[in-house]
């Protein structure tokens, strides 16, 4: 008789033969920084997560460094919003100030420890900066309705990329799902001498119900929805096409978002990609486990680790997760 159970017989044996492992260096922690706060503001829909002040951001980055995380992803929430998101590429805008704070804090925290600093990444999108909450510049469509103008938005993205690079971002992460965004950003960065700045492309980003709590995290002003530019949840092949286009345009890394409901897309992108593949475990995925655990319906630590392990097993090299700090401590 063949007895596969021999390889499951003890914790030591299971650890020895594990096919997939988590490591802190694979994890990226998203961080929200809000202009004008005097103290961190807890998010009701995401227990344990806060909107940071500029001062508390430095401490969070130091924690990420001590935990050995691979990176941090920064999202800025400005005090002023307008139709074109002018604060997005303002050198003194909240996100660009946060980038400078994070770079300095990471270097200071890593100095003399022998540990590498986490890579500083910045979300490159207009939705947090526009008064209408969309990811680009609006224009009148054929029927008179307002729609996102793809090519006008690309001009704004190129400007954002340059400002983020000048502030010290090591990775810019275009998340707006505009056609041609990676090529335009790469050309702008290279033309300005920022050839060392990497692009993490949100390649297969779906119009998902699981983004709900994120709206609170960034004080979203969204009017309507984003279904004309984010992908339809029904489509698999389209996600692969989007990833292929970003690879052809020069993406240094590609991403699937959300993670948990799109593991098939993630696995297929990982199979065909010749660059690192990331997946974003989004706010709704976080909130569901936190809510179930708070009610005693599931084991919190077990569910968190299993959910992230599943994302890794599907093919993600990098996982963006709000549990990054806790996971790093658990697996230390």
Automatic annotation (TrEMBL):
User: Which keywords label this protein?
Assistant: Heme biosynthesis, Lyase, Porphyrin biosynthesis
Q: Does the keyword Lyase apply?
A: yes
According to its UniProt record, in which pathway does this protein act? Porphyrin-containing compound metabolism; protoporphyrin-IX biosynthesis; coproporphyrinogen-III from 5-aminolevulinate: step 1/4
PANTHER family found in the cross-reference section: DELTA-AMINOLEVULINIC ACID DEHYDRATASE
Q: Which family does it belong to?
A: Belongs to the ALAD family.
Describe its partners and assembly state.
Homooctamer.
| UniProt protein name | Delta-aminolevulinic acid dehydratase
Recorded source organism is Oerskovia rustica
User: What is this organism's lineage?
Assistant: Bacteria, Bacillati, Actinomycetota, Actinomycetes, Micrococcales
């Amino acid at each position: 008789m063949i007895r596969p159970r021999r390889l499951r017989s003890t914790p030591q044996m299971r650890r020895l033969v594990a096919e997939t492992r988590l490591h802190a260096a694979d994890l990226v922690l998203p961080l929200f920084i809000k202009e004008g706060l005097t103290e961190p503001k807890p998010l009701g829909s995401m227990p344990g997560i806060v909107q940071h002040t500029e001062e508390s951001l430095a401490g969070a980055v130091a924690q990420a460094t001590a935990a050995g995380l691979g990176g941090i992803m920064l999202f800025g929430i400005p005090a002023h919003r307008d139709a074109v998101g002018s604060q997005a590429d303002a050198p003194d805008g909240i996100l660009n100030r946060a980038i400078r704070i994070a770079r300095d804090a990471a270097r200071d925290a890593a100095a003399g420890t022998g540990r590498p600093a986490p890579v500083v990444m910045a979300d490159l999108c207009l939705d947090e900066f526009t008064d209408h909450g969309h990811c680009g510049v609006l224009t009148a469509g054929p029927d008179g309705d307002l729609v996102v103008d793809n090519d006008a938005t690309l001009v704004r993205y190129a400007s954002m990329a340059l400002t983020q690079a000048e502030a010290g971002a090591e990775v810019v992460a275009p998340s707006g799902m505009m056609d041609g965004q990676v090529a335009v950003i790469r050309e702008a960065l290279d033309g300005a001498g920022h050839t060392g700045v990497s692009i993490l492309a949100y390649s297969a980003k779906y119009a998902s119900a699981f983004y709900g709590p994120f709206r609170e995290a960034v004080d979203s002003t969204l009017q309507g929805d984003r279904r004309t530019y984010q992908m339809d949840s029904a489509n698999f092949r389209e996600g692969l096409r989007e990833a292929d286009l970003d690879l052809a345009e020069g993406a240094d890394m590609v991403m699937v978002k959300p993670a948990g409901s799109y593991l098939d897309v993630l696995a297929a992108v990982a199979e065909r990609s010749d660059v690192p593949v990331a997946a974003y475990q989004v706010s709704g995925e976080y909130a569901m486990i936190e809510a179930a655990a708070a009610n005693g319906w599931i084991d919190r630590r077990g569910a968190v680790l299993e959910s992230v392990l599943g994302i890794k097993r599907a093919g993600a090299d990098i996982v963006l997760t709000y549990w990054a700090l806790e996971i790093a401590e658990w697996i230390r």
